[in-house]
Structures are given as structure tokens and as C-alpha cells.
Write a structure and sequence with these properties.
alpha/beta, four-stranded antiparallel β-sheet, 8 helices, 17% strand, 285 residues
Length: 285
């Protein structure tokens, strides 16, 4: 299993240039050269590159599917891009980037979705393009003016917002784990936020699939592991297996301590841990 790296990014540019994109859709054409991102010591010269977003989005969704498909199959599931399930708020316009499902089709019932992924990946490092087809690595994400992947606040907010929309869609989404996949670290501003989102159950994990985004210091994981960086197939497989098989259940409520105490007392009368959990969840709903 090969995780995200500079060769993956070069592969994207090479495939795009050969198949479906012009250089101006992929690079900034500046006076000093043609670059994936504007280097820190240069000016953007009024340019804002938006056309690459959709292209890299399609590439990363397929890349994640190819990476995770063998893990899904070991679990008896299918890795599927663009899953639609209106029961949990996943429409044609807001479909799941990737999901592990029991059935190999786009339109799914909630009961057949076992794991949801939101993918927030982009080109991380900087490259210089020289005609006809030379792509040269220039430096990591700290060498340019761009803000890739999970380092972007708007990417984080969109991922959180979509996850909350799924959670509030109703009870049918309550037992579906949600994972955010990226290929960069996160900023210090989101350390406490991702840990809290994991703790309260809205999102089960933020993951970077890029083990070496830079040779300098970066956030590899947060204290409560709301965000982690994956570097081995074994750890990725183990994480996916635990999320699928642990029978997780999301619940959220805001009630008085008195009423909560009554619910706990009633639930505690059941004979087993599972029965107590089921009673508690039925009462708190």
C-alpha cells in the first residue's frame, strides 16, 4: 500500500496534462515560471487558480477508493464513490465522497452503509512545470503561499458541517461512523475542536494519509487522537475494522440532570451491558 506522497502529486499532473487538462488549468503562469502554487518569495500577479479544484477532487476520490477497496473487501464490503442516501441527507448534489457499503451500487439504504468518508485532499507541495512535460518538485507546503487540504479552515468547516447535517438527519444515521480523509496536517486552531468532535461522536476521526508532508515539524496527531496521521497499512486496516465492527451509536441530548438521573436509574435495572445501553438510548430519545 502506497500512501500519499510527491510522486502521487506528480502522477496527477502527468495524467491531467496527457488526458483532460491544459497547463493553465493546473498551474500559475508567472513571470519567473509556471508553478503549482505561488512561491512565498513571488507575487501572484493577480491570479487566482480555481479550475484545478474539481480536477484534483475527482482524482483524490478515486485514489482513496483504490487505496481502501482491499480493506473494504476484507470486511465483506464495497468501497463506493458518490453514494446517495436521502434518508441521511446524502442527495445527488451532496453525495458521500466515499462509503463502505454492503451493496455495490450508488443509491443505498442507510442500513447498508457501514462507514462514510468525506475527502478533503489537494496538491500539498509545490512544483514547477516546464514544457513539454517536466514537473519538478520545489518544496513542501511551507514553501508556498497556498493552504492545502486540512490546513484550510473552509475545508474543515465544510467537512464538519456536512457531518452535522448527516447526524441531524435522523436516527438512521446514528450507527454510521464518519471519517474525514486529508493529505496534510491540521492547524493548531483545530486541535481542541477535532478532539471534541471525536469525543462527542459527531466525527469519529480526522485522518491524514500523507505520512511525510514536510521534513520539518508538523502536527502528527492530537492529544485525544481526533486527528491522526496514518503511515502503515496495518494501522489503517485496524482502524477501519474497528469502526465497522464495534457497533458504534451516536446520541446527543440536552436535558436536566434530574431527568438524566432517572434515565440512568431505569436503564440500570436491565440485566446486561447491551440491554442497559439499549434502554438508555430508547429513553434519552
Amino acid at each position: 500500500m502506497e500512501f500519499w506522497n510527491t510522486q502521487t502529486e506528480k502522477q496527477f499532473f502527468t495524467k491531467a496534462l496527457k488526458g483532460f487538462a491544459a497547463p493553465e488549468q493546473l498551474f500559475y503562469k508567472l513571470k519567473k515560471g509556471t508553478f503549482a502554487y505561488v512561491p512565498k518569495d513571488m507575487h501572484a500577479e493577480g491570479q487566482t487558480l480555481q479550475s484545478r479544484n474539481a480536477l484534483i477532487g475527482q482524482f483524490t476520490e478515486k485514489w482513496c477508493k483504490d487505496l481502501l477497496h482491499p480493506i473494504a473487501r476484507k470486511l465483506g464490503l464495497y468501497a463506493i464513490n458518490g453514494v446517495v442516501c436521502e434518508e441521511i441527507g446524502l442527495t445527488q448534489k451532496t453525495s458521500a465522497d466515499l462509503a463502505f457499503c454492503t451493496k455495490n451500487k450508488i443509491n443505498q439504504e442507510a442500513k447498508d452503509i457501514k462507514l462514510l468518508f468525506e475527502i478533503k485532499m489537494s496538491i500539498v507541495s509545490n512544483y514547477q512545470f516546464t514544457k513539454p512535460n517536466t514537473i519538478k518538485f520545489l518544496g513542501d507546503y511551507k514553501s508556498h503561499q497556498g493552504t492545502p487540504s486540512l490546513l484550510r479552515s473552509d475545508s474543515m468547516l465544510k467537512a464538519i458541517g456536512k457531518s452535522i447535517n448527516i447526524r441531524v438527519s435522523g436516527e438512521k444515521s446514528a450507527n454510521i461512523p464518519i471519517v474525514i480523509l486529508g493529505n496534510s496536517p491540521i492547524t493548531t486552531n483545530y486541535v481542541k475542536k477535532v478532539d471534541y468532535l471525536k469525543k462527542c461522536g459527531v466525527i469519529q476521526q480526522f485522518i491524514s494519509l500523507n505520512p511525510h508532508p514536510t521534513d520539518t515539524d508538523f502536527i502528527k496527531e492530537t492529544p485525544q487522537k481526533g486527528f491522526i496521521t496514518i503511515s502503515t497499512e496495518k494501522s489503517l486496516s485496524s482502524l477501519m475494522k474497528n469502526l465497522v465492527e464495534n457497533n458504534l451509536y451516536y446520541f446527543s441530548s440536552m436535558i436536566s440532570k434530574r431527568d438524566l438521573g432517572k434515565i440512568i436509574t431505569l436503564a440500570n435495572k436491565e440485566k446486561t451491558d447491551t440491554a442497559r445501553a439499549e434502554k438508555f438510548l430508547s429513553l434519552i430519545r
